[in-house]
Amino acid sequence: MLHPSGPAKFFRCLLTLLALSLSACHSQPSQTPLVKLDSHHFQIHRVSTEPLEELTEPRIFIDSQETSFKNLSYIHHLRSFDPNTSASQFEDFHTFEVASEIELGDRVEVRADSVTLTGDIVRANPHPGIHVDRIGYQQGQPGVIKLGLYLGQRELPLPQGAAVKLIPVDGRAPQELSWVRTPERGYPYEPNPNQEVATVVLPDLPEGQYRVEVPEWGVSETFRVSPTAALESAQNYALGLYHQRCGVELKKPYTPWVRPACHLGPVSGSSTAISGGHHDAGDYGRYTHNSALASHALLYAAENWFPTSPPDNLGLPESGDGLSDLHQIALIELDFLIQMQRPDGLFWGRISPKERAYESDVTADRAGPQRVREGSSAATAAAVAVLFEASRSAYLHEHWPDRAKAFKHSAERGWQALEKVSFKKSDHHYGDVFEDRDERLWAALERSLAMAEKPPEFEGDSNSLRHWGWWPAYEGYGGAARAAASIEKKALGQTMVLSREVEAASLAWLEAHRASAYGVSFPIASKRHQSAGWFFPLDYSFDMIAPSPSPPSPEVLAAVCANWAYERGVNPLNQVFLTGYGELSPRYLLHQQAINDEFALAPAGLPVGSMVTNIRFANVPENVERPPLIPGPEGKPLDQRFSDSPNVLSESTVVNQARGLAVCAWLASRAKEPSRSRVSPAQREPR
Ligand SMILES: [Ca+2]
Ligand SMILES: [Ca+2]
Ligand SMILES: [Ca+2]
Description:
The protein is 30% helix and 16% strand. The protein is of the alpha+beta class. The structure holds calcium ion (3 copies).
C-alpha cells in the first residue's frame, strides 16, 4: 500500500550495491567505493554479515603517492538482526580527513594490517549528511532540512558559507536558501554531540519534487512536497491501529496484511464474554490501563482539536460514514473496557494467554486460550476516568446515546467499588507510577464533570505531580490535568495547580525541541541521565498541541512538524522510524504478528522507538544465536544507537499509536487551512 518513492528506492539500491561490492572484503585488494564527503574527507562504508573489525594502522596512497591524513574517525552499527533466521548485518564507516584536496576520480588505496582496499573517489549521491523528510513534506506547513554527519570521534565540519541551493526537479529555477547552525545542548558532557548541525528552513513550496545541493558536500535525496502528506501519515497511523484490532478479521482493501479474526474463544476467569479492543503492543495482551490511556488520547483529540469536524477519511472500515473516525476507534476500546468490569465493579487488569506469558511463536489468529488477570486499583481508576469522559461527550450523546449511558453507568459502578479499596498492585507495571493517586484524581475530576458536581480538592505542588520530578502530565496526572483545564478556573481552587500542568508539559517539550540539533523533543532530563527507551516523538507533540490547538503559536507548530519529520528521516541516521514505507522502514521489530506472519515487511503504521540506550532483545527463539551488541555504553550518542532489531526499548504500545494518530490527524486538518507565516532562521532562539 505504501511504497518508497523512486528516489528513495534509488538510495537503497545504492546502499545494496555498496554492500555487494564490499561483501568480499577479505580477499585482497578489494574494490571499494570511496565516497567524497567534502574537499578533505572521504568515507569507506562497509556492510557485512559478520562483525567488522576496525582497520588497524591504515596508510593511504592517492594515485600511488602515500598521503598523510589528519584524522581517522570510526563508527560501527548492528544494522539489522532478523530473529527468524538469526541473520545479522553489520556496517561500519571509516572517515579519513586528508591534508590535500580530494578530487573526484582520484585512485585511492587504503593499506591496513588485515586488508587493502582500493577504489576511486566518487560523489556522495545522495550525501548522507543532508537529512530530508523521506516520506514527504506537507505543503504549507513548516518544513526543515538538517545538515550534519556524525563520523565517530568527530563530526563532519559544516561547509563554508551558509547557503544551499534548492533545486526543483521539474526544471524550474533553483533558489538559494540559508542555513543556521543549531547545535545540541543538554548532555552532561562536552562537547555535546551534534555541534556541527545546521537547519535549513524550507519556504512555502508548490507541490513537487526537490533536491538541495550543499556546496562542497553534494546533493540530497530527492524529496516530495505534497498537499496530502499529513493526511497520508494519519492514514498510516490509523492503519497501524487497525493492525492491532482484536477479535476481527483484517482484510482488503483496508490492508494487504490480512489475517483471520483472532481471540474469539471464551476468556477463562470471566463469567461474561470479552472481545474486541486492541492488542497492546508487540504482544497480543490487552491491558486495561493502556486501553484507558489510548481511548482517552483519541477522545480528547477528537473533542478538542478539530474546530470544524473530526476526520472521517482515515482509510478504515468506519471511514466515509459521516461519523468521526477517532471517536469510532475510541469506541472499540471503550466497548472492550466495559466488558473488563467485574461483577464487583472493579476492573480486570488484562487479558493474556491462559497457560504462558507470551505467544511469541504464533500469529494472532492461532493464539491459544486466554484468561483475565487481576487488575490494580490504578487500572480501575483509569477505566473509570475515561468512561466518565466518554459519557459526557456531546458527540457520543448525539450519535451513540445508549453507549454514552452505558459508559456512565459502568463508570459510576467502578467509582463506588474503587472507594472501598485502597491501593492494590497487579502482576504488571502499567499504571504503577504515583501508585494510583494520579488515576484516582483523574477519575474524581472526570466524575465531577460528568455529574456536574464540585471538583475535588487537590493538595500538593507541581513537583509531586511530575514523574521523576520533571515529567509533567504523565499518565493519570495527564488525564487529570486535561480534565482540570476544562473546568472553570474559579471552581478549581487548589486544583488550579493541576490544570497548569497541561501548559507545563507543552513548554517542557518545546524547550526540549529547542535544545535538540535535529528539533526533536527528547527530554532534557533524559539527556542528563543519558538514558533512552520507548521514545516516540509524537507523544511529545501530543502534549505540545494539548493546551491551545487552534491556532497554535508558530513555534509550537514548527516544533510539532520537526518531531513529525524526525520520525520520517530528518534524523542523524536518515532512518524512518515507522513501518509502512517499504525498504525505508524498520523490518525486524518486536511484534509477534510481524515475526510469525507470512509477509516479509512488518504491518504498516507501527512507530518504532528512535532513541535507545541499548538493544534488549526479546522474542528471539531459544535456538537462535544473538549477535554481539554494539551500541552499549561506549560513548556513542543516544541518537546513533538504533538498530533494526526486535528491541524491547523500541516497542510501541497502542497509547503511542493513539497519540501519534491524533497528532497526524491534527496536522492533516491544519493542512486544509491557508498557510501562515513560518519561523525564519533569524527568529530562532540563540543556542
Ligand atoms: Ca467514520
Ligand atoms: Ca499511577
Ligand atoms: Ca513476517
